Amino acid sequence: MIAITGLTGHSGRFFLQQLVDGNYTGALRCLVRAGSDTRRIDASGLNIEKFVGSIDSDDDLERFVSGADTVVHIAGIWKTPRLLAAVERAGGVRHVVLVHTSGIYSKHKMASQVYKDIEADMQQYLDRGMNVTIVRPTMIFGDLCDHNISKFIRMVDKLPVMPEIDHGAGLIQPVNARDLGQAYYKAAMHETLPQLDYICSGERPLSVHELCVLIGEYLGKKTRFISVPMSAGVLMARVLKAVTFGKKDYVEKVLRLGEDRSFSHEPARRDFGYEPDSFNAGLKREVEEYMKHGN
Length: 295
Prior knowledge:
The structure is a single chain. By secondary structure, this protein is of the alpha/beta class. The strands form 4 sheets. The protein has a 7-stranded parallel beta sheet with strand order 3-2-1-4-5-6-11, with helices on both faces. Helix 1 crosses helix 7. The relative contact order is 0.14.
């Protein structure tokens, strides 16, 4: 039996679709809040038990994971310590798949330190022999609720001139939520994997500038750009933070635009067959969704 947190979320729903497409016949249990929209789960035709509870309740979590062979945790790295404690108390879980983030590799402390602290805390469970696999998505995209590429789409569409840091040379490798559904499914089908963690990135790296050019092409408009040096961008972000009394703090977001955020997914391909789809096809699909619903 697989126990899953976050199945109703952005990438979780694509994991659900992978289970459907893979004709999964085993028992499933998903943690849902009272009042959650479970229509996709109900319509899946899978053998799913809906466990109504709170991920912030130790008692709920222990009952939720009891009897599971595999636990797939999609609901956020901040909940990992509580979940692993529940898994240890319940006993019997053979494999825990945790969805964390490649943000842990950022050189900027504000972006990475909290993740490093959480994973340092979970080391105690690894030392006691818990079988854990960490899946690390890069920047997630795929539809208008992704809070990542959707923001670039709106900016390219609405702004007469698109500002970019240092000519938009920073590299990114966004991953489609559909590809993550595949990654969760394939990782969960293994009782053990040879590595502790796997980066799940998109098909290929590209610069922020190339991303915006492609968005413009799919929107059917010629995008004009103005390049801003990193130092000037950081200064403007700090001024904005000051005048809004900290309500709009974009300093680290600006800094990360100049950071290389492209990562190979070769170990995931090698060890559990992860194969991301075409980035361009996924981006075009999201831009078309935006033109139909988002603008």
